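Interim report, section 4.2 (structural modelling).
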Amino acid sequence: MRRRDSSDRSRRRARRIVSSLVSSQVSLPSMHEASLVRSLLSQVGELVREHQAEGVERIELEVGPLSGVEPDLLQSAFNQLRDEFQCGAASLDVRLVPLTAECPACGDRFELVEFVFRCPRGCASNVRVVQGEGCVLKRIALRMPEGPGESL
Amino acid sequence: MTTRIITVERDVLADASASAEEFRQARTAAGTLVVNLVSSPGSGKTSLLAAMAQRWGDRWKVAVLTGDLATDRDARRLAPYVDVLQMTTGGACHLEIPLVAKAFARLPRRDLDFLFIENVGNLVCPASHDVGEHLRVVMLSVTEGDDKPGKYPKMFRRSRTLVLSKLDLLPYVPFSLEAAAEDARLVQPELDVLQVSAQSGVGVDAWCEYLERQRRQVLGRDA
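Predicted structure of the assembly:
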């Protein structure tokens, strides 16, 4: 019924346009974590070039309960994609942090449990999340060429 | 060889957020309210857009960018009423700003009053991605169950509006409108809640007026 409807109306209203198929650049593995890992690895690649490093040894990420990522899936997407981004020798450390918020009224900082976004003192109707919502690249360890002034 | 530790402290999606912000600002300047419509599959996004577009007629300049894993079925349903462009994600579970911007650039006219981005049906992945919208609207149909907001906190947290849909089916299912709204407001206390049935037409006028009001507030425009 739906298809009959739409084809009838399509004929009536010809000025509207349906263009087909703008395809995204997604290749395997086509999941959410893979697209995050691609963003991560391209940022890391920029840092490698900026610091004229020879490679990446370790990548440290911070995620929380509202980051929208599953650490195990993140790790497996990383393992599959790191070669493609010249990070074959790198390891990924994913650190889990609690969901932390701040009350705009009393200024208190607290951990949010069970996704109830209210100040435990009951003062504000909404709170500001300060940690555990994003997927944050904290630090990377770069392998540097030997040279003057390069020692830590 | 030596090792150098670099402190970065940057969100992985920071570049995407910057692109989304740029897209949003360009639409603001052009007087276009961008609405990102998210929900699980089959909750009625396309039906609501079709009902809304029929109600509006030629009153506003409207276009829809619709995301779909494999087909152009949604686009074909909407084509009789509005300019619509299909984004086939090739199996990807959500839309991202580069695809949205690319699709927008291919619209036949871009001086719009409203641009709707009908996201891929999924309450998980689209939650993380800013696609340059002013308003994120999450839909929940009464057949899905009133316990869903707490199960998908990120999606409801990052939405501004909750539309409870398929109200005509309410007599047949154990769904409490109050419980759903209350559950959603635990994660997002500032959520606006609307109720609609695209089939019976209940709430469609209120939805249209809500969007017009949002456009006035967000963009500061009347016409």
